[in-house]
């Protein structure tokens, strides 16, 4: 069960104190020139929160990465979201719109009753999948705004937050997508493949290419493709490589050549028994060149 912010702060304080004592650090040494000893004690007691930036510096004094700390505080957070994502993705691939809408309604009730942002995220994830099935599906403006606001407040992009961004692209406004993906490209450029969650960043970027192409923001989609193509790309997965090649063909080649090359890509999916995915991209390809499709 996800927790409210007060409970999270208490868990963070307890975890920090446990790590500090386990590693033999005194409060005055860890907090020196970062936060006062009295405020650090209050944080450890769960009485106050501290900024993510200060927390990172404090953890650094103890040679603990932020990712290690998050996992120590709540190893089930990403698992809980992953379980939910598996459930709703199954409904998406079955095209079970009715059940998906019931999930959206249930998660909305959980959020209303608890005001726990975890349920805002699960509601938004389900709503984004529903919209991916049918672009005419109307998502509440308040939900789209709230999940965008949540993502814009993120200071530390861990695997969980990156996954939320990638899964909710369909309901995030284009300016927010641009702002966040620019932050991703800055981080990747600075840290290269040594960056934590490098693969997750790349997957989200290629998904953003698809979303921006859908909305007719071709220049920005091309900008992202050029950035991704300039990187040392690891062997991530089949769909990542397929999407990158598919949209590169679509946005950089003449229509005749793009159709020819993407036909070959789609045929490769069929050969691997990925008929449903192949059919979806075939439909996308046919619709892309319809007059006024992106007007």
TrEMBL record:
InterPro entries: HTH-type_regulator_Rgg (IPR053163), Lambda_DNA-bd_dom_sf (IPR010982), TPR-like_helical_dom_sf (IPR011990), Transcription_activator_Rgg_C (IPR010057). SUPFAM superfamilies: lambda repressor-like DNA-binding domains. GO terms for molecular function: DNA binding. Residues 109-282 form the HTH-type transcriptional regulator Rgg C-terminal domain. PANTHER family: TRANSCRIPTIONAL REGULATOR, TRANSCRIPTIONAL REGULATOR-RELATED. This is MutR family transcriptional regulator. It comes from Oenococcus kitaharae DSM 17330. The lineage of its organism: Bacteria, Bacillati, Bacillota, Bacilli, Lactobacillales.
């Amino acid at each position: 069960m996800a927790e409210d912010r007060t409970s999270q702060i208490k868990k963070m304080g307890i975890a920090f104190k446990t790590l500090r004592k386990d590693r033999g650090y005194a409060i005055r040494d860890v907090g020196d020139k970062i936060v006062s000893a009295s405020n650090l004690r209050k944080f450890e007691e769960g009485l106050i929160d501290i900024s993510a930036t200060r927390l990172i510096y404090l953890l650094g004094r103890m040679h603990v990465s932020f990712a290690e700390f998050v996992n120590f505080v709540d190893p089930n957070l990403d698992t809980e979201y992953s379980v939910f994502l598996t459930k709703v993705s199954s409904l998406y691939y079955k095209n079970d719109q009715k059940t998906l809408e019931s999930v959206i309604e249930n998660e909305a009730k959980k959020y209303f009753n608890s005001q726990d942002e975890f349920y805002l995220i699960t509601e938004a994830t389900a709503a984004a999948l529903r919209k991916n099935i049918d672009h005419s599906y109307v998502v509440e403006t308040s939900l789209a705004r709230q999940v965008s606001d949540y993502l814009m407040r993120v200071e530390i992009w861990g695997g969980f937050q990156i996954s939320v961004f990638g899964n909710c692209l369909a309901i995030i406004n284009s300016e927010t997508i641009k702002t966040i993906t620019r932050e991703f490209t800055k981080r990747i450029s600075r840290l290269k493949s040594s960056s934590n969650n490098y693969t997750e960043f790349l997957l989200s970027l290629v998904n953003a290419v698809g979303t921006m192409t859908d909305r007719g923001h071709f220049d920005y989609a091309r900008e992202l493709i050029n950035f991704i193509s300039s990187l040392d790309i690891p062997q991530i997965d089949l769909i990542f490589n397929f999407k990158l090649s598919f949209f590169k063909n679509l946005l950089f080649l003449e229509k005749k050549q793009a159709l020819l090359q993407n036909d070959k890509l789609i045929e490769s999916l069929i050969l691997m028994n990925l008929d449903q995915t192949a059919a979806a991209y075939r439909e996308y390809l046919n619709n892309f060149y319809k007059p006024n499709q992106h007007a």
